[in-house]
What does this fold into?
Amino acid sequence: MEATLLHTEDERKLIQRAYRKLLRSIKTEIKPEDKRNLRAAYELAVQAHSKQRRKSGEPYILHPIEVGRICAEEIGLGPTSVVCALLHDVVEDTEFTLKDISNLFGDKVAMIVDGLTKLQDLYDVRSPQAENFKKILTTLAKDVRVVLIKMADRLHNMRTLGAMPKHKQLKIASETIYIYAPLAHRLGLYNLKTEFQDLCMKITNPDAYKEIASKLQETKLERNRYINEFIKPLTGELDEIGVPYRITGRPKSISSIWNKIKTKGVPFEEIYDLFAVRIIVDVPLKREKRVCWEVYSIVTDVHTPIPERLKDWVTTPKANGYESLHTTVVGPGGRYVEVQVRSERMDEIAERGFAAHWKYKGVDSRKMDVFSTWLDGVREVLENPSNDAVEFISDFKSNLFSEEVYVYTPKGDMKMLPKGATALDFAFSIHTMLGYRCTAVKVNNKLEPLGYQLQNGDQVAVITSKNQKPSENWLNYVVTGKAKSKIRSVMREEQRKRGEFGKETLMRKLKNIKADFETNADEVAKYYGFDARPPLYIAIAEENLDLSDLKKLKVEAGKIIFKKKAPQVDHIPPPSILSKSKKKYTGTPRLLINDEEANHFEYSLASCCNPVMGDAVFAYITVSDGIKIHRTSCPNATNLMAHYGYRIMKADWTSSENASFVTELVIKGVDGKGVAQSVTGAITNQLGLEMRSISMDGDQGYFEGRISVVVQNTDQLNYAIKYLKGMVGVSSVERVD
Ligand code: MN
It folds into this structure.
């Protein structure tokens, strides 16, 4: 079957080699039946994709084979999942149908392939990403394998994104960072999450990525020497425990280092915990906890621990199943070093997440429960979705992706809620009625407001009253999906009642002017600027409308004759309509938007990130303010692209001489002998830049200045930053994001 003319001899060898590698990567037991299915799936996929090539030019079939390998080797899934991975693009891209798959491989495989087909190429669909996200979660609730295989698919696509055009890369990256990375985290797939984040950073922030990567490389030898020095005094005592163990010292991921640089405002050189030391012991389940603490005791005998940094996820695993003992100690030379202690089983779960859990299913059912509890939560959110998809997604993210807090009922039962949950959330989590009637809460025997944020270990008692009922502003006091959806449903019921009242009022008024209700209701709504009847009813009930207007209109045979009024609609005009409209910028074009000269569009530079010529940028079609140009590293970019991917257009700078851009710099330093003055002097004199605004703050010999300057392009800007950084007394110069 492989003998298709479209693959060359070399390619056929490549494909067979990839398939053999895939088979070797399956670590779970392969029954003869599995073997037959794998072979059949492989041959079907080869045939089905024989005419396709990837963007990079290589035979398409290499993609499903590689996805299968990632499933087996990096996620730890078994033969059935590999079969599905091999078939994941078959129904979508070729003439084979789901029926064929079901006939050949059975219903289970067909169901998973169907789920994967529905999740195909989400980023290309012209619908908000939130809808796509919902789709992913729906399949997740049905069979987790669908999402795990989808992750493998996304990972391989991300790894091979280079062949795609830049603006597509950005869209895919933003969706990955918004949906797949948190999902991977939540499913305990730490390796995947980290790789997703790194691959995205490589696309959205290539310069910072390259810089950190090369610095990590440069400091590798020194780091290894230090780790050896740290480990050496431990080994003797560790040997004495008498169990096999291994120690690793791996650097943290590039994206997490970058996060630290940004949030802590320190340069690479000053980040002390660039790596974590991991001690993994090979012991039977029964002895795990005891041995982990024994190792902890040995480590802290040699290196002084920092007590606040001790985290015990061995006794109480994280909600995503993560188990490990973390501590930070003071290592040689006074450097802080994070040490993680865990068993081989815990390590496998930490590396592979969900799939590894299945392997240990039945080993300890209490620990398995964290996943079923979470999946129950997913189903619950799906059953009570709010109308707005964007709201839904943010509910979901704040609930099911976040870390958790543990609190106690007055009887001492432990309850797990997402971090940031409030006392009112707690009430709703126990029982819906308890939430509705909650008037006050006592936390650790002290009265607290309903919006009190729960802390680990709090004991919470709910005080209720029969006369209490939820109000709109309760939505501000809760974060959990359950509480929100319950409060919203009460609000909707209230609205319905108000709507009914508004409807009755309108009926009465129409009757008074001898106009028929059914004939006129839609027109009346339009007349007052509503696109449907319900919001009209509510506006009437809330007395926001002056219905006496209606009396002035003519009525003929029960029908009101309306004077024309422009409907007020809020829609996004497609770019073709905007095209050649008002010209905001004349003169030399500075940008190409979707390969067209930008001055055909009404566009402006986004004020949140102030792009400068030379920055990587994209164009975003706003609802009412034309096209905005953002930097790809803009803090809003991920959000925009993930939610409104269909409004993104590509934008490129074109060369131009007379361009000028305003950008803001934050300059920090020691205010010894008038450093602030010499900085501003340098900007105007040595650098010859125009300053737009300036604010300086000084405190106890330290100063921080925010200066807006006008530059022509990023080269000029980078030169200025470098120059200012080199000045005496200046400790950092950052461009404002
Ligand atoms: Mn695929």
DSSP finds 28 helices and 23 strands in the chain. Residues 63, 88-89, 153 surround manganese (II) ion (CB under 6 Å).
